[in-house]
Amino acid sequence: MASAGTKRPARGATAGAALRPARGATAGAALWVLPPLAALALVLLYPLALVVRQTVSPEDGGASLAPYVQVFAEASFHEALTTTVLIAVGATAGALLLGLTLSLVIAFVPFPGGKALSRFIDVFLAFPSFLITLALLFLYGTVGVANGLWTDLTGAPHGPLDFLHTPWGVLLAEVTYFTPFVMRPLLAAFSQVETGQLEAAAALGARPGRIVRTVILPEALPALAAGGSLVLVLCLNEFGIVLFTGAKGVVTLPTLVYTKAILDGDYTGACVVAVVNIVLSVALYVLYRTLISRTGMSRTGMSRTGMSRSGVSRSEVSRMGVGSGPCPGGASPHAGA
To answer: Rg (Cα) of the chain, in Å, rounded?
Structure first.
């Protein structure tokens, strides 16, 4: 108990003294954050702002949206936009299908060299895109190995393969190059799947296809969405593959930027096409974040309804359609705890 002569500090004074160090710490943290933000603005935001400014600065001076109207009215822009979207969607679908198949084999089918192949995928991600394109030209080009074997065997003047200079060649090169970008997150997700779930599903009589659909794929959906979104954005901005395949009839948005800026000297038009490409990429990124958040919410809801990571829940068993037969040990598959 305080003596009569002792004065207690006022409550407001105590609270103010407690808040002063916290405010000082916040101000110090803000000072440390300012240099990285300034560097980021200088390196990234300032060049981007210059590009956007150029799009509203026609050659006759002033500020106008006339460059956008002019570029949007060009048939070459419409063709490039359509080609870019079609090739990006097709390459993403092919990479998802091939990457999912290969990842399932590597992760769940034991074979010699599986671990080495999984590690090679990490190395493959560091390869430049033009290297894969050159390899495909060496194999399937007009003077490649496949056509050379055909001409040696049949005596024909030229081989039957001549598709690398077409959109199909660009599509094949992009699927080949971007498939590992899908496989890497999928393999990481498959490594987290509990073997107890797979063993319980197999013991209940579920076939491999049903196990993949009901046990493995739900765990891999976020990784599949992440890999697919990444590949789609990369395909929209891919330039080297289109250039090295020599597909002169395939004009995408990045190649149109190059043509307008370097060959035609139309820097304003090139900046307009670049801004359109940026907007598409940002929109896809927002869509990717939305899909990931919704997938995470649905996975959380499934876990709250009793989904166990150490085994297969009764709802999964009923979805597998294996509840008609007896379980190991003579117990009914619907006999719950």
So the answer is: 29
Token duo for residue 55 = 């799009």
**Averages of pLDDT over each 10 residues, the chain, 337 residues:** 50 50 60 77 79 79 81 91 92 92 84 76 79 83 80 80 83 91 87 75 74 78 85 88 82 90 86 90 80 57 40 43 39 36
Whole-angstrom Cα distance, residue 240 to residue 133? 9
DSSP conformational letter for 298? H
Give the whole-angstrom CA distance, residue 313 versus residue 330. 18
User: Residue 269: CB partners within 8 Å, gap ≥ 6?
Assistant: 67, 70, 71, 260
The Cα–Cα gap between 205 and 322 comes to: 6
**Which residue type does 143 have?**
V
Rounded-to-integer distance, Cα 219 and Cα 152, Å: 50
Q: Which residues are CB-contacts of 229 (< 8 A; sequence separation ≥ 6)? A: 284, 285, 287, 288, 291
CB atoms near residue 296 (< 10 Å): 12
Q: 3-state DSSP helix/strand/coil percent for the chain, to nearest 5?
A: 70, 0, 30
Interhelix angle 167-190/129-140, rounded to 10 degrees, is 120
* Count of helices and strands (H, E) across the chain: 15, 0
CA distances from 196 to 310, 311, 317, 328 (A): 6, 5, 14, 15
pLDDT given at position 24:
55
